[in-house]
Design a protein that fits this description.
single chain; alpha/beta; N-(1-d-carboxylethyl)-l-norvaline Dehydrogenase, domain 2
């Protein structure tokens, strides 16, 4: 399917152009080895398995992720193996460890990349910043990427609901001449709603910018700032949270997802519309220089260098959990925890449990 925005024409791959049966046929003789069972691994592996592909898991034995894989129905020495065993058995190696984990495990993986195999990523980080990660694959393999635009948890949930996440895909090396069809087959197999083409470099630049920007960093910053100003002016925690987070996530975001920002505006009062139309450009103009600074830091490799440096520390998990705990224990998200328990679906879930 092709569509045009101004002078830019883009092709989108859906199940109409690339069916699940076609994907199964293309990968019928492949063993898909999923290395890593943390964030993306479970969702992609389980969706592929449920869609009828030949999938095995590679994970450190007796780790929390190994135990999770067992609970998810993977069988030790049949579909669940130590990392090196799985890499040896697989014809397509899905390298789904964290970026730090990929750096650590790469020396064990690369020796199993014999000619004709495919190395698959869901993030362009390791290959784009290979001077820092030291990930230099051999020339006699296919190198491909499918990056779901969301978490592995969301990918799995939407798949079970008969829906899907959009994904980007890219080819870095096409040794066999079949790299693109391999990528698209896996993209459809993991449950992508549709796929759009990118490059490894563009994927990681846009991904890191988004994570630090509107998807995670900026939105938390905006939430925190608005909540603080409302509290400083005498608004109760419940009122401040509802006007900052709850109304957005529970009422307005679904409308944006349904038909766009203008549709959400149309479904709000004329007073709300007037204020939003008067203020949105001020927020844009205030933040655009910050986003340009952010993109520059990402594209220069400085963000990657910082990530690798911090995530390589022996106690990085401990430090990370400390920061996440600080976020969780902030008044904003303590109020959020209480408010969520008042939602009707929480009461229903509690009764069922």
């Amino acid at each position: 399917m092709k569509f045009k925005i101004g002078e830019i024409e883009e092709e989108i791959i859906t199940k109409t152009e690339f069916s699940l049966s076609k994907a199964r046929k293309i990968l019928s003789n492949e063993i898909i080895s999923v290395i890593g069972y943390g964030v993306q691994g479970p969702g992609q592996a389980l969706n592929l398995r449920d869609n009828g592909f030949n999938v095995i898991i590679g994970q450190r034995k007796n780790s929390k992720s190994w135990e999770k894989a067992l609970k998810d129905g993977w069988i030790a020495n049949e579909t669940l193996f130590e990392i090196e065993q799985a890499a040896d058995k697989g014809s397509i190696i899905m390298f789904l460890l964290s970026d730090a984990g990929q750096i650590e495990v790469w020396p064990k993986i690369k020796k199993f990349l014999s000619p004709g195999k495919a190395l698959y990523f869901s993030h362009g980080f390791g290959l784009t910043f290979n001077k820092k990660t030291k990930i230099f694959p051999p020339k006699e393999i296919d190198i491909l990427l499918v990056a779901p635009k969301g978490s592995g948890t969301s990918l799995r949930r939407l798949f079970k609901e008969g829906k899907g996440l959009n994904s980007s895909y890219a080819i870095a090396q096409n040794y066999t001449g079949k790299a693109e069809e391999r990528a698209l087959a896996i993209g459809i197999g993991i449950g992508s709603a549709f796929l759009f083409k990118t490059t490894f470099k563009k994927e990681v630049f846009s991904d890191l910018t988004g994570e630090r920007g509107t998807l995670m960093g900026a939105i938390q910053g905006l939430f925190s700032a608005q909540y603080q100003v409302l509290r400083e002016n005498g608004h109760s925690p419940s009122e401040a949270f509802n006007e900052t987070v709850e109304e957005l996530t529970q009422s307005l975001m679904p409308l944006i997802a349904e038909k766009g920002m203008d549709w959400m505006y149309e479904n709000c009062s004329t007073t709300a519309q007037r204020g939003a139309l008067d203020w949105w450009k001020k927020f844009r103009d205030t933040n655009i220089s910050l986003f340009r600074e952010l993109y520059k830091e990402v594209s220069s490799g400085k963000e990657a260098e910082r990530t690798i440096s911090l995530n390589s520390k022996r106690n990085y998990r401990e430090l990370l959990n400390k920061e996440l705990k600080e976020l969780k224990n902030s008044e904003l998200w303590q109020v959020g925890e209480l408010i969520r328990k008042l939602r009707p679906e929480y009461e229903t879930k509690t009764k069922k449990a």
